[in-house]
Amino acid sequence: MSKNPVLESISPKFGSSLKVLNFLGATNEHAPTWHFHPEMEIAYINGGSGKRHIGNHISYYNDGDLIFIGANLPHFGFTDSLTGNKSEVVIQVKEDFLGPDFFSAPEMHKIKQLLKRSKQGIVFHESVREVVGPQIEALLELSNFEQLLAFLKILQQLSETEDYTLLNVEKVVLESKPQDAQRMDTVFSFVSKEFTRPISLAEIADKVSMTEQAFSRYFRKKNGKTFTQFVNEYRLVHASKLLSEQHLSITDVCYASGFNNFSHFNKSFKAFTGKSPSKYRDAFKNVLES
Length: 290
Hints:
Layout: E1 19-24, E2 40-46, E3 50-54, E4 57-61, E5 65-69, E6 87-93, H1 109-117, E7 122-124, H2 126-138, H3 144-160, E8 164-166, H4 178-194, H5 201-207, H6 212-223, H7 227-245, H8 250-256, H9 262-273, H10 277-289
Antiparallel strand pairs: 1-6, 2-5, 2-6, 3-4, 5-7, 7-8
Organism: Pukyongia salina
GO molecular function: DNA-binding transcription factor activity; sequence-specific DNA binding
Keywords: DNA-binding, Transcription, Transcription regulation
């Protein structure tokens, strides 16, 4: 089993309801750990590119990110030694940090809906990130009281925009028990290291001391997809990263991402992204050059 902690214990600084962390570069120690916490979390990544793995969703971000993760929704960290980001500011706070009924006030209706959406994981698009990101960074310089007021204003802005994407669109809310998170940490950590080779159901089931049949049922119940679907999605996200960053041939990308059949890779990639690998790479070049 993984030795990494799976339940993150969060203690705000003295005199504050919020915990605001500033990770410079690749210093977020939770990045490789499948973890969760009772607090909701907003993460602003300034620059860089990497993977989002939140609930049963996996995707890839470019040029920074702004993410809202609801309470108890399992996730990996978003920055590591390869993401190339300038910094990452993380805000962690309990949903009832202003009391159990505060967000029931009529003035708080939109924010209450935002908190409900966050249970699925939200990524805000570039137009929102460019405005709100600097405000999140500015929290680091404020007093406790000013920080609280500024945070409420940030929540209000996020609640009013429609420029976002819900990540777990099937509304599979993964509010995990500690033992579930530890088991998933083992599975996801193993896949992240071994996805470039075939992984049999027998092998992964053995890692968590389950039969193949029991593991298959368990994984699908917890993630809303089969283990094979999950591994293929992980490989496709990695392929999109290689296509956008590396000067590899598409054939090399196919095999470097763990696929052993080029035709199957092409078909799967197009179904996953809506574009063939070559058109995906061309579209990405056009974005960078525009």
